[in-house]
Amino acid sequence: MRLHRNLCFAVIDGLTDIFNEGQYADKVIQQLLKRDKRWGSRDRAFVAETTYDIVRWKRLYAEIAEVKEPFNRDNLWRMFAVWATLKGIRLPDWKYFENTPTRKIKGRFDELSKIRKFRESIPDWIDAIGIEELGEKKWTLEIAAQNQQADVILRVNTLKTTKENLQNILFDQNIETEFIKGYPSALKLKERSNVFVTDAFKNGMFEVQDASSQLVADILDVKPGMKVVDTCAGAGGKTLHIASLMENKGQIVAMDIYESKLKKLKVRARRNGVHNIDLKVIDSTKPIKKLYNKADRVLIDAPCSGLGVLRRNPDAKWKLEPEFLDQIRGVQKDIFQQYSKMVKSGGKLVYATCSVLPSENENQVKTFLTSESGKEFNFVKDRKVLAHESGYDGFYMALLEKK
User: How far apart are CA 212 and CA 358, in angstroms?
Assistant: First the structure.
């Protein structure tokens, strides 16, 4: 593989924004890919994947390169040289790579690979909390799985097509997919591809949504004609899934504290042919109180640490702080109390997160069930999904029924 100067410069610029300016990797990469119209799909893939790779292995590469944050451009070129050397790529004779100790890099990699926090490139405090909550053996397997590149999974929009039909349409465009057992609406890409440029996507036949995330709407057990509240809808991946399961019949109230996210949901709903969603911004307690005892189903897809989705958000581990984790557990507890009041008698509630930590998951459910509001509910079932067991994102979901 030959390194091209303009592509490498793009990677270094991207890393500067992510590491030093605190910008989100996905947003930075989106911008980088618009940089040069002459880039082909291989060039774009190189920029995106190399940037993500160095973000994912930041701690390991920085340790090998003997550089510390905040990184200047020379530091980033040294980390880039570590990445290239470990990938077996021959370094060109550019000034940035002068005196790169190739042999030493490999030796140092072997040495550091014996220590989990370096091998899996994670902050000490995340490693400690992982061991504390999951145990050494399970955490070691889980964090290794969280460093693998995630598959691209589609969720078929059954309002517009069938899984078989979509598979054929994509096959005609040289995109091969396969069914996944136990995931009724999912298609997995055999090879990575930019599916967003396809007519099938533009016509709303599918959304990109991880297989684990697709389990949440399924466990909610919705039926056409129901009144369903999605309390933390965000940009609405799960909301749209619920709409397709309800066959566009009934009412979905999609709520969020961020109006900007609900605007994205509006655009996606139009593309998906969904017209049974009402959008509500949570700007006070009023919209919540108005729905007390009104909903057949309530979904609380709670804000969380995101430690189940590090495969697709590798920069999250560098942005997370221990204080945030304490704070978010408090938020989870509060919204569980508030939003559960929307469920009517005989209705059902799902509490879900994309975290693998019991303190954000089953412990929150136990705490809720022993509270005054929680005594009105029965625990039905829960499901813990770990990346190293499923091959998909880490998730948790619990189903409760109001007496």
Answer: 17
Reported as a single tens digit per residue, the pLDDT across 297-346 is: 999 999 999 999 999 999 999 999 999 999 999 999 999 999 999 999 99
CA distance linking residue 233 with residue 275, whole number of Å: 16
Q: How far is CA 397 from CA 219, 390, 394, in A?
A: 8, 15, 11
Confidence of residue 141 (pLDDT cuts 50, 70, 90): very high
**Token pair of 334 as six digits:** 């509060």
Query: Which residues are bridge partners to 281 per DSSP?
Result: 256
pLDDT confidence band for 159 (50 / 70 / 90): very high
- As a whole number of Å, the end-to-end CA separation of the chain is 63
CA 339 – CA 299 distance, rounded (Å):
9
Q: Are strands 153-156 and 177-179 parallel, antiparallel or unpaired?
A: unpaired
Instruction: Out of 8, 232, 304, 354, pick the active-site residue.
Output: 354
| Buried/exposed code over 78-112 (b: 16+ C-beta within 10 A; e: otherwise) | bbbbbbbbbeeeeeeeeebbeebeeeebeebbeeb
- CA–CA gap between residue 49 and residue 15 (Å, rounded): 12
Q: Which residues pair with 277 in a beta bridge?
A: 252
pLDDT at 161 (0 to 100): 98
Tokens of residue 391, six digits: 């091959």
* Cα angle 374, 380, 381; round to 5: 115
Say whether 354 is catalytic: yes
Rounded to whole angstroms, the Cα distance separating 391 from 152 reads 12
Contact status, residue 259 vs residue 227, Cβ threshold 8 Å = no
Please name the residue that has the structure tokens 């220590």.
115
Residue 275's pLDDT band (cuts 50, 70, 90): very high
pLDDT at 315: 96
pLDDT surpassing 90 at residue 188: yes
Give one word for 346, left, alpha or beta, with left for phi > 0 and alpha for psi -120 to 50.
left
- pLDDT score at 99: 87
